[in-house]
## 1
Amino acid sequence: MVKVDPSHPGQLDESTPRTGLWQVVDGFVGQLDAETARAHGVVPLMAQLQRSRGEEVSAELLHEERAARMTNAIAPSVLARARAAYDGPMLLLKGPEVSALYPGQARMLADLDLLASDAQGAWDALRAAGFVQPERLKGVSSEFFHLDPLELPGIPLQIELHKTFGWPSGLHPPRNEALFEAAVPASVGVPGVLTPARAHHTVLLAGHAWNERPLERLRDLIDIAVMAEPIDRRELAAIAAEWGWDRLWRTTRRVLDWLFGDGEKPTAVRLWARHLPDLRVPTRTELQLRRYLAPFWAAPAATALYEDAYQAKLSLTRSRSPAQ
């Protein structure tokens, strides 16, 4: 049975006066140049802020802002086509669900992440319905957590059909059944397209960001903070503990409290996320340091040591590979 989440987001109008979290975000975005804003994934927010101040918005920022608006506008129709092709349970993560929480949906969509009850069956159904594999994108391993991306011809918004949602290396993903059981209707308004319950979604966003780039981009942290805003902290901590993600969530929560509130600077920021206080792009040395230290802030020490040994072995193997 589909449950209704009373805290499910509605769209936030671009003209709404900024308060709370968004007032803090505007302060951060206002300090960035275009290149750094791009690295942190907040170009649409920068264009929006400049316009609100009566400043001229550069052509490159306008281009990315329009691309963000376009992908958000076409997402519901792409999802409707996918829903019509596959009638099994379908759960939407990130993307439009997070954009709906941004003023004026000022957030870029790179793709649509869909968890299907039968990922391969859904992939085959979408292919039969006219979705294609983009030649510009490489296929993924059969062991990867999602299948090869698909898109509708001429529409630059790909779908990734997931077997499970991404999770940090060394930990375990939550059970799909639990996510589907608690799911609520997605904000895109496509009948039959669900999204994780907001508390689940918050912790999933933290895990997804940690899997790809721990504590690196401002936009990832904004996503988690805005999704977490109305949720009781104890509920989020309980979900993270149930999934075995408690260390990861504690680290993320401390960073959010420091960045958007009045919390103390976390040890992770002092040691290996040292680019965050200045909101700059991390250096190669900092990224390498993060590669070996971040696991200790996400997983038990024994697991983190194993991950470090694996990464060291992987680096050695790559360094010995013949030049391509």
Note: The domain at 20-320 is CATH 3.30.460.40 (Beta Polymerase; domain 2).
## 2
Amino acid sequence: MKFDGANFYQLKSREEWLKHRLKGIGGSEAAAVLGLSKWLFNDTLYRIKIGLEVPEDISEKEFVKYGVLAEPHLRALFALDNPQFEVIYEENNSYVNKEYPFLLASLDGILKEKATGRFGLYEGKTTNIFSKTAAELWENKIPQNYYMQVLHYFIVIPQLQFAIVNAQMKFFNGTELIKTEIRPYRLERKDYEDDILLLKRAEINFWQNNVMKRVEPARILPEI
């Protein structure tokens, strides 16, 4: 799918996708730039981008494999339950912001709102909930790292006016599965313009003044 603000690429393989990711910042890395990720520090991200470290390969972990296999089914079910949208997906997609070509996006889907013609983001998530604390991260909001991911995609493709994060949540008591829920969270771009600008400035600074100049940033510890 083509947009005025971003170039579209269809990559041929996972290997090509991994090489492509080194050329910029992807959605799952956005939170790390601001020190808001529990899994990736900003200085580690810097070293990965300049080739000093290799990112951990988590593709064989069970929760990752489940998420990959579940993705097309969740997207198809969402389309079935939400006929007000046209759901568009292109395999191995990558979008690159035209103004800042180091801002990259690989999307789970694009939504076209039939009544208005507006375009939005579809983002599918699968998560296991083992504690009350974990459940609270999803109460009337999405976790911070996913929030930053959505904002990043808004930056990459300025034409996206809303996002729906479609989360399949499995609740456990110990090892026993208690229930499964699918919760859609809708975010309107206009409500988050200040945070979008904050993230955009941070990403530009990180890439231009750290990665390009080979200046390692001071580590920012997350407050979570």
Note: The beta strands are 6-10, 85-88, 93-97, 104-105, 109-113, 119-129, 160-173, 176-188.
